[in-house]
C-alpha cells in the first residue's frame, strides 16, 4: 500500500525535515514488496511549487531513499510508492503537479480507456505524462475545476462520483495541496486515512512513523499548530482520527477544517483484492496477496 502524507502548517511558511523511508521495508515479512519511488512536494514562500522525487527502488539506493530533505513552505505532500499501474519512471512518481496543485494517491482505478475518453471530452488528456491511474484521476479533477471556475471541492466531488458510478475501483484515497489549502479524500473504506489536528499546546507533539517522518524544530519551539493527514498513525498521539468513508476534508490557510460527505455511499463497481491481478494486489496488500 502506498503511503500518503500531507501537512498544513498554517498561514506562515515553516522549515521541516522529511525522511521518506525511515525503516527497512521488509525486515519481518520477506514477502513484502520494496518501495518503488519516493516524492515530496511543497510550495515555497514565493508560492512556487517545488518537488523532490525519484523512481528509485529502496533496495537499489537506500541511501537516497532515507536521506533527509529540508523544505520550507506552508503545505506539504509526500508519497512512498508501491507501483500498481505504470513502470518505475519519473513521470509515474508521485506527487503530480497540475494547475498549481499537487496530488498524491493511494488505491487502484481501472477501466483507464474509459477514463481517457472522459479526459478527452474535457480536453485535459494532454496533462497525462505517464501511465498511472493516479495521474489520470488528477487530470479528471483538474478538467472539472477548469470548467467550474476553480472550485476544487466541487471538482473532487464530481470526479470521484463519476469514477464511483462508471469505473471499477478498489480505492481512491487522495491528498491534494495548493499554496494555501490541503484537501484529503478517503473513498471508500478500503484503505485507512487518518487526520490529526495538532494544537499549539498538544503534549503529544511528534511526527514519526515507519515510512514517512517529519521533524520541525521551528514548529516545536514556537508551538506552531498543524493539521496532518497520513495513511498510518505517525506517533502515539491519541487524537489521530480515522477519516470516514466518503469524507472530503478541506483545511484552509488558517487551519480551519471543513468535512463533507457528498460521495455515493457505495461504488457501483467495487473491486476486491481477489479481482486484482497479482502485481496490483501485491502493491495494495502485500502480505494478503502473498497468502499470509
What is the level-2 CATH architecture name?
4-Layer Sandwich
Helix fraction bin: 10-25%
**Total of DSSP H or I helical runs spanning 4+ residues:** 7
Order of helices and strands: EEEEHEEEEHHHEEEEHEEEEHH
CATH superfamily: Aminohydrolase, N-terminal nucleophile (Ntn) domain
Major sheet details: 7 strands, antiparallel
Radius of gyration: 18 Å
* Low-confidence runs of at least 5 consecutive residues: 24-33, 286-292
Based on helices, strands and strand pairing, what is the structural class? Answer: alpha+beta
| Percentage of β-strand residues | 25-35%
Which geometry do the CA atoms define?
A: globular
Total domain count: 1
First CA to last CA: what distance? 16 Å
CATH topology: Glutamine Phosphoribosylpyrophosphate, subunit 1, domain 1
User: Which class in CATH terms?
Assistant: Alpha Beta
Report the count of strand segments.
16
Overall residue-averaged pLDDT value: 85
Amino acid at each position: 500500500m502506498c503511503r500518503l502524507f500531507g501537512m498544513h502548517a498554517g498561514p506562515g511558511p515553516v522549515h521541516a525535515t522529511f525522511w521518506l523511508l525511515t525503516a527497512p521495508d521488509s525486515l519481518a515479512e520477506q514477502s513484502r514488496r520494496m518501495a518503488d519511488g519516493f516524492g515530496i512536494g511543497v510550495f515555497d514562500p514565493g508560492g512556487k511549487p517545488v518537488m523532490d522525487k525519484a523512481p528509485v527502488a529502496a533496495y537499489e539506493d537506500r541511501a537516497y531513499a532515507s536521506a533527509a530533505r529540508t523544505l520550507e513552505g506552508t503545505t506539504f505532500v509526500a508519497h512512498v510508492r508501491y507501483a500498481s499501474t505504470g513502470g518505475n519512471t519519473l513521470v509515474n512518481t508521485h506527487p503530480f503537479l497540475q494547475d498549481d496543485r499537487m496530488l498524491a494517491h493511494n488505491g487502484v482505478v481501472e477501466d483507464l480507456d474509459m477514463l481517457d475518453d472522459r479526459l478527452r471530452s474535457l480536453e485535459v488528456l494532454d496533462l497525462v505524462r505517464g501511465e498511472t491511474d493516479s495521474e489520470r484521476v488528477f487530470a479528471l479533477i483538474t478538467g472539472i475545476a477548469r470548467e467550474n471556475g476553480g472550485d476544487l471541492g466541487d471538482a473532487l466531488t464530481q470526479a470521484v462520483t463519476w469514477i464511483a458510478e462508471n469505473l471499477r475501483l478498489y480505492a481512491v484515497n487522495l491528498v491534494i495541496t495548493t499554496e494555501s489549502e490541503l484537501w484529503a479524500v478517503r473513498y471508500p473504506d478500503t484503505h485507512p486515512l487518518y487526520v490529526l489536528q495538532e494544537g499549539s499546546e498538544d503534549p503529544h507533539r511528534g511526527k514519526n512513523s515507519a515510512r514517512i517522518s517529519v521533524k520541525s524544530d521551528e514548529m516545536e519551539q514556537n508551538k506552531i499548530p498543524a493539521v496532518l493527514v497520513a495513511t498510518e498513525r505517525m506517533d502515539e498521539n491519541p487524537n489521530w482520527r480515522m477519516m470516514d468513508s466518503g469524507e472530503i476534508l478541506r483545511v484552509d490557510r488558517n487551519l480551519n477544517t471543513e468535512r463533507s460527505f457528498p460521495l455515493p455511499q457505495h461504488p457501483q463497481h467495487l473491486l476486491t483484492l481477489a479481482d486484482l491481478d497479482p502485481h496490483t494486489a501485491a502493491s495494495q496488500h502485500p502480505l494478503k496477496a502473498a497468502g499470509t
